[in-house]
Design a protein that fits this description.
Layout: H1 2-5, E1 11-15, H2 19-29, E2 36-40, E3 55-57, H3 71-81, E4 88-90, E5 93-101, H4 104-110, H5 123-129, E6 134-136, E7 148-154, E8 165-172, E9 177-190, E10 197-200, E11 212-223, E12 228-237, E13 245-254, E14 259-269
Parallel strand pairs: 1-2, 3-4
Antiparallel strand pairs: 5-7, 5-9, 6-11, 8-12, 9-10, 9-11, 12-13, 13-14
């Protein structure tokens, strides 16, 4: 309805949920029935009554930007229907960042208590739990290092294969502190408009329901201002369920008070 209100000649809205039946009623009640066609189904399985469209609008973001792999659907729609040369996608740019955080209280509450549960050793649960990324709000004051980009996406040109990535990074400590985990967040932008705009899911930006994604470390790093942690992160859809993400993280650190030997830790976001 916003698109039609903004001047779109005709809008084709696609959703595979039954909520589209209520949407049809809402569209009619607001006087847009002649300008909005609602189609129930998956993008990969439906057909539009037109050969091409000028603009694609989609909110495909997931936790850790790529969770649920919905961007694949946007790429499919772009390649099949978006008019060549001057087609518009909203939004059209996305960048994901990573930084080190101090989060000792939460790490103890979520994981370390399994070491002694009323006198019993349940650390086997801790080993499993720490490999599941945590989606939660991180306070800006918890950020210990600078932030570095690990993924750049141009939705106009990216390919399905680009959604699997490996990125190297180097993080520099801004103060003497501990690193209990790494936090990932993303920014997106609408650059194909008269006045480019965007938003961020960073800890120091306004709250969004995507929050931030935290990869907790098995061993805490003690780091001093100016010291650097180098690492490599790999992300790809899980083979059995492409909506889940398999994330591998490797860190190397040789500081004044602690070390990270370059071992790889595997996480699964589900």
């Amino acid at each position: 309805m916003f698109a039609a209100q903004a001047g779109a000649k005709h809008v084709y809205a696609v959703d595979c949920s039954s909520i589209i039946e209520q949407a049809k009623t809402i569209v009619k009640c607001n006087g847009f029935a002649d300008r909005i066609t609602l189609i129930r189904g998956k993008i990969e399985e439906i057909e539009l009554p037109v050969p091409e469209v000028d603009i694609i609008v989609s909110e495909w973001f997931g936790y850790f930007l790529l969770y649920e792999s919905m961007l694949e659907t946007v790429v499919y729609a772009r390649d099949k229907w978006l008019v060549k040369n001057n087609g518009v996608i909203l939004p059209d740019k996305a960048v994901m960042y990573i930084a080190g955080i101090e989060d000792g209280n939460v790490k103890r509450e979520r994981f370390d208590f399994w070491d002694d549960v009323y006198g019993f050793d349940m650390s086997v649960i801790k080993d499993i739990a720490i490999r599941e990324p945590v989606v939660d709000v991180v306070e800006a004051k918890a950020i210990v290092t600078d932030s570095k980009p690990i993924l750049h996406l141009d939705i106009l040109t990216c390919k399905k294969e680009d959604l699997e990535f490996t990125s190297k990074f180097k993080l520099q400590a801004q103060r003497n502190d501990f690193i209990h985990g790494l936090v990932a967040y993303f920014e997106c932008a609408f650059t194909q408009v008269h006045k480019p705009i965007g938003f961020s899911t960073a800890p120091f930006a306004r709250y969004t329901h995507w929050k931030q994604t935290i990869l907790y470390l098995e061993d805490t790093l003690t780091i001093c201002a100016g010291e650097t942690v180098t690492g490599e992160i790999t992300c790809k859809p899980n083979k059995r369920n492409r909506r889940d993400l398999d994330i591998a993280l490797m860190l190397k650190f040789k500081g004044r008070h602690s070390l990270a030997d370059g071992s790889t830790v595997h996480y699964r976001l589900r």
